[in-house]
Amino acid sequence: MPHLSRRRALQSFAAAGAAALCPPTLVAQQSAPAVAPPTETRWQRSAADRRQRARGITWLSHEPLEFLLRRGDRSTDVAQTYARMLDPDNIRQMAAAGVKWGRIFFYKGFGLEHERPHIAQAQKVADLMHSLGMKVSLYVGGTMFIETLYQELPEARNWEQRDASNRPVPYGSQLFRHYACPNEPAYREYLRKVLTVGVNDLHADEFAFDNIMLQPEPHSCRCPRCLTAFAAFLRRRYPTPEDAFDRFGIDNVADLQVNAWQSDDEPAAIAALDDPVLQEWVRFRCESLANYAGALYDITKTLNPDVAVLLNIKGIYSFNRYWTNAVYHPLYAGRVDLVAFDTGGYNEHIDPATGALISQVRSYKMARRINSACEDSFSDDLRAATHMAFGLQKPLPGLAPAPEGSGAFNVFTPLMEFFRHYNDRYFTQTNNVADVAILRNWPTMAYSNSAAYVPATLMEQVLIQYKVPFDLLFDEQLNRLPQYSTLILAGQECVADDQLQTLLAFVRTGGTLILVGNVGQYDQYRARRPQNPLLPARTEGQGRILYAPTIQRADQPRRSAAQTSDPEPGAPAPRASGAERFNPPQWLLPKNHKELFQRVADSVPGGLSLTTTAPLTTLAELLVRGPSRETLAHFINFDRSPPRSPVSPFSVTLKKSFPGPAKSLLWLSPESDNPLPLQFQDTPTHTTFTTPTLQIYGMAALAQ
Questions:
Q1: Which residues pair with 349 in a beta bridge?
Q2: How much is the pTM?
Q3: For residue 436, how far is the Cα from the chain centroid?
Q4: How many helices (H) and strands (E) does the chain have?
Q5: Which helix (H) or strand (E) holds 401?
Q6: What is the model's pLDDT at position 417?
Q7: Which CA distances in Å does 78 have to 9, 28, 73?
Q8: Edge to edge, what strands does the sheet with 697-703 contain?
Q9: What share of the chain is helix, strand, coil (3-state, %, to 5)?
Q10: CB 512 within 8 A of CB 487
Q11: pLDDT, greater one: 243 or 32
Q12: 3-class secondary structure for 156-222?
């Protein structure tokens, strides 16, 4: 997320297995005669006009000037840059260019009184922005600046996180910034005062909370607050001596101690968490962080329920963030409005070294299931198109619409002009279609630091590139199971006893369970089962259990030159083969991807809701829009290597989302000024058509 990033202060294969359809009975509409595209589209003209009107604007920064100076980001005109940024004429020019949103510095962590002068500056800017019809997002940092805050509030020293050696936990190499303990109530109350100023004086539309993460072991907080809270956590979960003994072999949880690490390298070398105390410690840290963030959400909504809450908790990666950073997204359901990705290596592209297709699709699917919108950059067309296809637009007064808000407010490209024009008509009030779901369950993904992430990520990659309509689920969302034909468990080696019963009940009532790899080999505590109740593959009740082949990796399981960067914020460098990260350049489709896809496609009665001959370098998402009775199929071309490679027309078959015949089918893309009517063939259950050439992004809108 470029606006919270600490690095930026100022500124094929065709998908096989299409479902067999009834013979077409209706040709409902003929396409318009082929017309040569205009030399310049309306979207190009609009983008050029907006860029011209925006020339010379100094864009707002979420960082206060004093932070840049303290961090050492110096230039000869930094003060002048801030003066230009805050100039009322600069803000008016933003509004005149059609900008409807901005994020301004507010509270960085120096101390509320220390920051009063720049908060006063921010208030003037916010007042002017509001008078011009713009929404105001206020940045709230997540660390304490010890040189100023401790002078202002000496008691703040007692709010610090402390590691096992009783040392403060700093923000990386910025040793003048310390993290506060997530279990310290006095710090939350202090932030309540800060947020009250933002709501009452600056009339914030949104708060953007940064640094919502904990540091990896051995730098997790072991202060007395946390150790006391952990003991209480264990007593709640294991209230009797018998419960404690069964879990830990010790009948008094008060006697348990969290691991005392011998070196910084030791925790990074762990391939799997078998120590029951460490397993509980992971969950405790995740709940502590989520409770802290939830308190910020509740404070905000108490002050003004219309103010949106953004949390920089980032997205779904292919390494264990529960263990490293204490971020478990389902715990934020209902207590976040906007999730910031704020990553580097996950931006949408095909890796030039390996050919892996990399995207944030997993993160978008996670966010939709916790009812959160997403913040990412729109400056790259692929990233913008992915957001358009997969992002949830959450209706809330404080949130600017996606094409106007964070990451997009100052991006003037033809694609973004297209998005702005059609946003209200096609990109709001949508729900995704999902024939199948894939589960990332807690014990597997929390206790495996590498091995389980390989099959899970690669099975998801098959679904993504074969354009299978799917949901990504977590344990807390298994109540949704009746909505799907098929549930996939790939490498989910630890399955809790009660979850086994839920899965078997799903099968007995007609669902299909696809197992890939060693699913269910262990219980919820990583204890090996003498017999796996999910195997062998069989028919059970009205449903069936299928066993898919083991995923055959197409990459070499070793670190490559493409893995030397750190696209995964907070991930420790791997120091042992067992703990090696599975990085995005390794997200190659497995060797047996055709077989894996076919197993999934064959499991859905009546076939998948979307089938297409589009190549595997394209992505698709299928949405329904209830108010207009439309099915929306979004397509994105990832093949951007020079020379730019458009995708030739391809066939698409959609399973109908609403009863009745198809009334119209339109193709919308930034290559055309207006929607293009398409010819289609209609049956009682399906609609089939052929798309025009796909450059970057296109959407088929089927109305019934």
A1: 358
A2: 0.92
A3: 19
A4: 19, 28
A5: none
A6: 98
A7: 11, 62, 9
A8: 431-432, 618-625, 630-637, 697-703, 664-668, 676-677
A9: 35, 20, 45
A10: yes
A11: 243
A12: HHHHECECCCCCECEECCEEEEECECCCCHHHHHHHHHHHHHHHHCCCCCEEEECCCCCCCCCCCCC
* Average pLDDT of span 329-340: 97
Residue type, 274: D
Residue 538 backbone dihedrals phi, psi, to 5 degrees = -170, 170
pLDDT in tens, 540-576: 999 999 998 789 999 865 544 444 444 444 545 544 4
Sheet holding 686-690: strands in order across? 26-27, 680-682, 686-690, 651-655, 610-612
Q: Let me know: does 505 contact 534? Beta carbons within 8 Å.
A: no
Rounded Cα–Cα distance for residues 167 and 161 (Å): 8
Secondary structure in 3-state letters for 142-161: CCEECCCHHHHCHHHHHHEC
Pairing of strands 686-690, 651-655: antiparallel
Instruction: State what percent of residues in the chain have pLDDT above 70.
Output: 90
- Residue 633 in this model has a pLDDT that exceeds 50: yes
| 119 φ, ψ (degrees, to nearest 5) | -65, -40
Give the pair of three-digit tokens for residue 661.
């015949």
Task: Find all residues with CB under 8 Å of 128, minimum gap 6, and list them.
Answer: 88, 91, 92
User: Which of 229, 233, 235, 154 has its CA nearest to residue 190?
Assistant: 154
Q: What is the C-alpha to C-alpha distance for residues 323 and 447, in angstroms, rounded to an integer?
A: 8
Q: Cβ distance 379 to 411 under 8 Å?
A: yes
Contact 509, 483 (CB under 8 A): no
Residue 432 bridge partners (DSSP): 623
Give the type of residue at 88. Answer: P
Answer whether 162's CB lies under 8 Å from 143's CB: no
Query: Which one-letter DSSP state was computed for residue 16?
Result: P
CA distances from 473 to 110, 309, 368, 534, 580 (A): 40, 23, 10, 19, 25
Rounded CA-CA distance 422/409 in Å is 16
| pLDDT tens-digit map of 439-467 | 999 999 999 988 899 999 999 999 999 99
What is the C-alpha separation between 377 and 658, in angstroms, rounded? 34
- Residue 7: its pLDDT value, please? 36
pLDDT value of position 2: 41
Distance in angstroms (rounded) separating the CA atoms of residues 62 and 74: 17
The pair of structure tokens assigned to 495 is: 């399955």
Amino acid at 8: R
Distances (CA, A) of 282 to 321, 402, 449: 10, 34, 12
DSSP-derived letter for residue 593 is H
Residue range 378-406, pLDDT digits in tens = 999 999 999 999 999 999 999 999 999 99
Q: Under a CB-based contact definition with an 8 Å cutoff, are residues 509 and 515 in contact?
A: no
Contact 700, 665 (CB under 8 A): yes
- Using the Cα atoms of residue 612, residue 472, residue 525 and residue 169 in order, give the sign of their dihedral: positive
Residue 578, pLDDT above cutoff 80 = no
Cis bond before residue 536 (omega within 30° of 0)? yes
How many CA atoms lie less than 13 Å away from 16 in the CB half-sphere? 10
- Give me the pLDDT at residue 220, please: 93
The radius of gyration of the chain's CA atoms, rounded to the nearest angstrom, is 26
Give alpha helix (H) positions in 304-352.
Answer: 321-325
8 Å CB contact between 4 and 340: yes
CA 169 → CA 20, 48, 216, 257, 326, distances in Å?
A: 59, 48, 10, 20, 15
Report the alpha-carbon distance of residue 638 to residue 622 in Å, rounded.
17
